[in-house]
Amino acid sequence: MAVPPTGEKVFRGIPVSAGVCRGKVLVIDKVRLTISRRTLKEEEVPEEVIRLERALIQTRHQLLEVQRKVSEGMGALEGSIFDAHLLVLEDRTLLDEVVRLIEKEKVNAEHAFQVVAERYATTLAAIEDEYLRERATDMRDVTSRVLNNLLGLEAEVDLRHLREPCIVISHDLTPSNTAQLDKRNVLGFATDVGSKTSHTAIMARRLRIPAVVGLKDISQQLKTGQYVLLDGFNGTITVNPTDQTLFEYGQIIIQQDTLQQKLRDILLKPAVTIDGHRVYLSANIEQPTDAEDVKANGADGVGLFRTEYLFINRDHLPSEEQQYEAYRAAAQALKPMSVVIRTLDLGGDKFLAHLQMPSELNPFLGWRAIRFCLQERDIFRGQLRAILRASAEGNIKMMYPMISGLDELNQANALVDEYKAELRKENIPFDENLEIGAMIETPSAVIVADSLAKRLKFFSIGTNDLIQYSLAVDRMNEKIAHLYEPTHPAIVRLIKSTVDAAHAHGLWVSVCGEMASDPVMAPLLLGLGVDELSASPPLVPPVKFLIRRLKLSEAKELAQFALSSESAADILARCQELARQIAPGLFEEK
Ligand code: PEP
Ligand code: MG
Fold it and tell me: What is the pLDDT of residue 128?
């Protein structure tokens, strides 16, 4: 179905990050390079070698230019990442081997370069030494640049540095791509695949970039340069919007401004219900610099620090020292408020470019989070020591992701004890009473919650995963997004039994999944007895706005209804009814 050159056309997907934007689209097409082998005539060989040398010089200039821009924009340390790439271009052994292959076998330069470079990369990737393994990624990165230049193709678009404001359209974006988006020039983004609780969507909300996912084949339908309107409230992309449509959206933007003013008015007020129940409303962060956003949005602290973002988007694993600095910076910036640091949750949809992780059939059920850390002891040790050391400098708490049973918890706790002993021996201070909790995000953890509770200080319910694991609905798959139901009676009961087990052992319970960022869901969670909600920073004010208009008694009635109901749709309807009744201003714009 081709898009007509004029005339309005609307594409519908899943809204994942609120806001409206309009502008030209930039379609990112990941063209897979197919390199064919071509046999040369004897007289063509010298020219082929010259062609290779020209491509190497061109690549060198491009890399120096990228390095200059990154150093200017992000700092010398980030810029130095490209030193390793430049070194590949100067590796005489590799280049001589490529030239020998061209001359001896009389093959084209692309083929020769790819064969030799891939052999080097595969060898490096298999080496035990972490530093050398990382060089395999550099090698592959440089190879694709050289091949692009040999083939006369445009280099892949660098999303960190866009020339003009645009709406990015792509088949998919990884969480690491999204974290690096050039915020000044990305007005919004839309993808063919994806869902509300993918980490890409979470990151879009975090960055306040309007976004729509699950648009099926939008990346095939649109062409770079087309003018569109993206509606992150309703999940639509309108191509060639008419004047009437633009007028209607203008009204929405005006209503948004009015709402923002109301939210600013309550920014520094506490999250307390009309009948005096104080709710602890904290924020989820990914970087120590996000601490500013936590304060600017009037949160009570950090309920979830997703530490994996310190690991992705960089060439090397962060050292213990670098992590210590990051955790300390967050804790000091927010002192005396508490910062709950979650240990590394890699895997699922978050991977390291430089760490060779095997591709798995079911990554969310695979080598992820605590399972990965309990096997990769060096990585876990560095992180636990860094968190322990930082705990001397602020109000830090720590929690483990994806605990599925007591064994994992006991193993992790034993490692913490071991590293505490190390630090004591080294005379390095840490908080002896550091509170440790666990994410409750697998159904098995809910069922054995009373055993876990005896060994912990708090629970944090990760509804994003708890829903996907309990309902057997992949949180990334847009085709079954309608089955991903936070108000499913099973989810309501799982949350209630977690709260009951925790309270019976004197633990407090937080919810840090995306349910806590949705003002419609806040009354249900509070009615079920949850003590703390941890939301994406930009969504703290709307959740607070709603809490300040709520009576705990109404929330309890709603929870009673939900616990006795057999229908997800009925529970959702009651949640929406209550939220709209007490805080209509939050919803009229949608
Ligand atoms: C969750 O699963 O709800 C959660 C907060 O963790 P993440 O989204 O990072 O998996
Ligand atoms: Mg999770």
Answer: 73
